[in-house]
Amino acid sequence: MLAWTVDHSSPAHLALREVPDPEPGPHDAVVEVRAFAPNHGDLEMLPALPDGTVPGWDAAGVVVAEAADGTGPRCGQVVTSLGTHGAWAQRRLVTAESVGTGPADADPAALSVVPVAATSALRGLRRLGPVLGRRVLVVGGTSTVGLFAVQLAARAGAEVVATTRDATSRERLARLGAHEVIASPADLTHDVSGALDLLGGPHLVQAFARLAPGGTLVALGHAAGQEEHFGYGDLFGDDGRHDRTLTTFFLGAETGLGPDMTWLATEIHEGRLDPVTAAVRPWEELPDAFAPGSRRAPGKVVLTVG
Ligand SMILES: NC(=O)c1ccc[n+]([C@@H]2O[C@H](COP(=O)([O-])OP(=O)(O)OC[C@H]3O[C@@H](n4cnc5c(N)ncnc54)[C@H](OP(=O)(O)O)[C@@H]3O)[C@@H](O)[C@H]2O)c1
């Protein structure tokens, strides 16, 4: 089969070449990949992967061989899948644990955004507990995880405040469900019950300072690439600042993702969740799509295979 493989002799650390088909173990189904959607993290780790690795976490396609142990999706099903590697290829292996199924007429390009971005947003928000009628801050609203978090928090009944440094994205965030869009957590006019942070650094420190008593901040991303420095008093628990929680999140430690991925895929297919796609391009254009300096609208770039 053809696959993008790590090749450190190329400036993009990638080469499209012929590789052996992946060999399924007893729990693996084989998916013919129709679309994949690279993540910030996928691209960041390319320089550190060994030559020859087939990278990629998220891919959607059609099952062409079922797992020998009878678990997982059935032949012909449209699926969206999460794996450690192997997504940027014509075929990949998936297990029942991290595969969502879509309706038979679902578009794999739309479903390919589910595994990391939408699922992280959903699982991260759950850490905040019930948000109905509560004020929730999404720090980094225009990151792909943030674009899903805004929609899902609004769907769950939260009053959503999103941050973006990009003034041209404010209207889009409002359309996705943000009640208020601000440049930074420092601009909050009043406190929030919960926060999902995709940026880290000073954004996280400022967001924590605006948590209401009993509130939770989920540190999910660190896209700003800056250090977090808490000053003396920032972690005080006196009146008005008591019982605040800061918790970390890692999608790779989450279990039983299948039902959530299936729900997200269905919501996208039925038009209740925007797949936040910025561009759909043929997979041969992968290095160009993410070339340094290439500007794109916030959201997912999806590559279609075949
Ligand atoms: N913990 C987990 O399991 C998990 C799962 C998924 C993702 N993540 C992490 O979550 C973060 C978001 O991922 P993603 O794929 O959604 O990222 P993404 O789509 O690439 O978006 C990154 C965002 O960060 C913003 N940004 C970067 N530097 C900034 C700065 N200095 N100040 C303000 N904004 C800044 C960018 O704004 P511009 O558009 O203006 O450049 C963009 O909106 C990443 O750190 C990723 O590694 C973690």
UniProtKB/TrEMBL annotation:
InterPro entries attached to this UniProt entry: ADH-like_C (IPR013149), ER (IPR020843), GroES-like_sf (IPR011032), Lipid_raft_assoc_Zn_ADH (IPR052585), NAD(P)-bd_dom_sf (IPR036291)
A molecular-function term among this protein's GO annotations: oxidoreductase activity
Superkingdom field: Bacteria
Gene3D superfamilies, A to Z: Medium-chain alcohol dehydrogenases, catalytic domain, NAD(P)-binding Rossmann-like Domain
Domain Enoyl reductase (ER): residue ranges: 9-303
Cited PANTHER family: PROTEIN AST1-RELATED
Name the UniProt record assigns to this protein: NADPH:quinone reductase
Organism: Promicromonospora thailandica
